[in-house]
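We now fix the convention by which a protein and its fold are recorded. The integers have meaning only within a learned vocabulary of local backbone shapes. A complete example follows; check for yourself that the lines match position by position.
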Amino acid sequence: MLAQQVVVSGVVVDDKTGGPISQVSVSSGKISVVTNEDGAFTLKLESMPERVRISHLGYKTRQVSMIQGQTEGLKVRLQPTTIQLREIFVLNEDPRELVDIAISKIPDNYSRVPELLKGFYRETAMKRKHYIYVAEGVENLYKTPYTRGTGRDRVAIVKGRRLLSQKQGDTLGVKVMGGPVQALIMDIVKNRDFLLNKDELDFYQFTMAVPEYINDRPQYVVKMEPQTTQSYALYHGKLYIDMDRLAFTRIELDLDMSDRAKATQTMLVKKPLGVRFRPKELSSVVDYRYDDGVTRISYLRNYFRFNCDWKKRLFATSFTATCEMVVTDSSSDDVVPIASRNSFDSRDNYYDKVEYFMDPDYWDKYNIIEPSESLDKAIQKLVSTYRRN
């Protein structure tokens, strides 16, 4: 909890179009959040900052001064970047070799000491265009050094709440991969069993794409596409690698949907008898942030799209599910591991671990991802329905 609160809030928009930009990093020192789908953010700090840093892929980073005293209702315009291509230098790079070098530099670029990260997690589900489920919470993440695997990494829920539609027929009972442990599983740089190992990478072909800027730093962009057939679904992806430090800064993955059975095997955890699950999309984004000489995970998002139908029904119903987590703070001082008995297990259901929405000031001084306007309206509607029942 923060002893004193200074609130910096506003909206981030594209300078040319005026449209909102989502998933923009907003930070002051080690404290950070991301914008929601409407481009809105709220950053809660212990004291008045001199400036706030606003950064996003493909845009020039802004340093917004707080000297004039206005901290709320800000409108920040980001300008798209036009990278000056180092054409000869880039074209001479071997993309697979570049990825291998970036992997070899992981011990130098990422944390070499245990860390305790604080994060905000949210998962939602929609039936067609209507929210039927929302759960969110503050969590602690214990991370061992990046020279080790994820075996001793743990997640513990600090505070959380949930809402479920009371309407008959909205309860789906289908569980897709996700939950707070995704912050450990999807830390792809650390969890190299997932992707960044020789055996797995040999299944892909690599090509150089147009470079980009992240946080005003030029990035190599390496595209990867499946080149073999395996017993499980592979991914189409992009790896962003800092040109100077050769650190992975962003990873984008889309699950290959050409084989529906393999995609289902990856996406689906469980479902009721009689329900037919038809996968449509699984896309993932993992962002890493460079701070004080160390790169660490800062944001991840999984987006699922699928249809479900019942044997006796004529039409299938479309569903989407999203789980996202932003790291809001980090510490490496006197870090104590999270005990197994207090940690969230991948077999646990997040819904069963948290309480119902009721208190409008529930998050108090915690940093969160602000709900979008549509999500906020859905939450109010679900709360009203729950209270009537």
